[in-house]
Amino acid sequence: MRPVSWWALLSSGSAPLLLVGGWLVAALLRGRGYEPVTQTISVLAADGVPGYWVMKGALGALGICHLLTACGLRPAALAGRVALGAGGVSAIVLALLPVPRSGGSLEHGAVVAVGFALLALWPVLAADRSGVAPWGLRPAVSIVVSALMWVGAAWFLIELHGHGAAGIAERVLTSAQSLWPFLVVASCLRPIRS
């Protein structure tokens, strides 16, 4: 088993902290006009709203963390590492392509969809089918995690189109997608037990 780079632990551990910290600080700076239960994280990064620069910075940093983790997670299959890195690129593009202050954006929505899909697929694509893999890269675990991320994405879409708790659904999904790389890296650092 090829070792995981030490900096992959740092980048993967930083990703969820940057994401959650970013939306908490941006929401505080935004003030009363923001409703985290129903409004998405993207609303916090809309150009010109108070604190938008915090959320844009957090999205960009999240993307860089995913790229670094993909480079350092050598035990994972190449296809999964590419998908994780491309998910990181999607986060960077989101920071550069915010939603308008009012209304939606087809381009932003397309990047969100691609990013969610890549980050839901990467666990399955990264799985090690050799039979001697860390638990985070085992096929069965990877399939379950990927399926749960797709369920989370479906929940988000239902809430978004039903004008429900889209903010909560998105936060649960994005938190899981930003935390999973850290758990995989951590599993690669532990001795493998057959």
How many extended strands? 0
**Total number of helical segments?**
7
Structural class: mainly alpha
How would you describe the shape? globular
Q: Work out the strand percent.
A: under 5%
Are there runs of 5+ residues with pLDDT below 50, and where?
none
Helix amount: over 70%
Mean pLDDT metric: 93
Query: What's the order of the H and E elements?
Result: HHHHHHH
Task: Give the terminus-to-terminus CA distance.
Answer: 13 Å
Q: What is the number of independent domains?
A: 1
Q: What kind of sheet is the major sheet?
A: none
Please give the radius of gyration in angstroms. Answer: 17 Å
Q: Keywords for this structure?
A:
globular; single chain; mainly alpha; 71% helix; 7 helices; 194 residues
Helix and strand topology:
Blueprint: H1 6-30, H2 41-44, H3 52-72, H4 78-96, H5 106-126, H6 139-161, H7 166-189
Helix pairs in contact: 1-3, 1-7, 3-4, 4-5, 5-6, 6-7
Notes on the structure:
The chain is mainly alpha-helical and 194 residues long. The chain has one domain (6-189). Helices cover 71% and strands 0% of the residues. It contains seven helices and no strands. It has helices at residues 6-30, 41-44, 52-72, 78-96, 106-126, 139-161, 166-189. α1 runs antiparallel to α7 (166-189) and α4 runs antiparallel to α5 (106-126).
Quick structural summary:
This protein has 194 residues and is mostly helical.
